[in-house]
Design brief:
Blueprint: E1 2-4, E2 9-13, H1 30-35, H2 42-47, E3 52-53, H3 65-80
Length: 91
C-alpha cells in the first residue's frame, strides 16, 4: 500500500492499511528502470524516486467467473457516471 500526502503524491509504501492501495501500476522513465535494477520488488525500486505523482484508479479484482459476475455492476456504474476519468473508457 502507498502512503499519500495531501498534494496527490505517493510518499512511501507500507503493508499497513491506508486510505489508498497501490494496484501495481507505475509509469516509469527508461532511466528509472535502469537505475532500479537489483531492487527486490517494484515498490522498492520506485521508493528511490519518491515522491511521485499519484493517480486514483477505480478497479476490481476478478480472477474467476463469479468474480466477473460481481464486477459487472460496478463496471457499469463506473461507465455510467459523469466522472471525467470514464471518458477514456468510451462511456
Amino acid at each position: 500500500m502507498g502512503t499519500n500526502d495531501r498534494e496527490g503524491l505517493v510518499v512511501g509504501f507500507t503493508k499497513e492499511p491506508q486510505e489508498y492501495e497501490w494496484i501495481g501500476l507505475a509509469k516509469l522513465l527508461p532511466q528509472h528502470v535502469k537505475a532500479a535494477r537489483g531492487a527486490e520488488s517494484v515498490s522498492e525500486a520506485i521508493e528511490r524516486f519518491l515522491p511521485v505523482p499519484a493517480v486514483e484508479v477505480h478497479c476490481v479484482e476478478a480472477e474467476s467467473e463469479p468474480d466477473f459476475e460481481r464486477a459487472r455492476p460496478l463496471i457499469r456504474e463506473w461507465l455510467s457516471s459523469d466522472r471525467p476519468d470514464t471518458e477514456a473508457l468510451g462511456a
